[in-house]
Amino acid sequence: RGVMIDHGTGVVIGETAVVEDDVSMLHGVTLGGTGKETGDRHPKVRRGVMIGANATILGNIEIGANSRVGAGSVVLADVPEHCTVAGVPARVVGCAGCDQPSHEMNQIIEDVPLDYQI
User: Fold this and answer.
1) pLDDT of residue 64
2) Which of 19, 99, 101, 118 is the most interior residue, by most CB within 10 Å?
3) How many CA atoms are closer than 13 Å to the CA of 25, on its beta-carbon side?
């Protein structure tokens, strides 16, 4: 139970954000608003999620249980459960690869589509 913030430097968690149990996030993560909304305006991170370093998650969106957010990604839309998202803007690039990414801490994304551009 609980939340693991590894190297908490630069982590920003907005006032209406929700982070459930068994979430792991690395340094530089932002759970922020878009600046366009009032009231409930920050992300909801469900149980078992692993958020990579310097990922930015903006708006009143939901990061589904047991999913992964790749390092440096910018997430602007809901993430389904058990999925891996990556990129700017983030998109689904595969399945999470395990039951609880927050415990495994596997940050390697092997199922990247061939049309993925850097």
Assistant:
1) 97
2) 101
3) 28
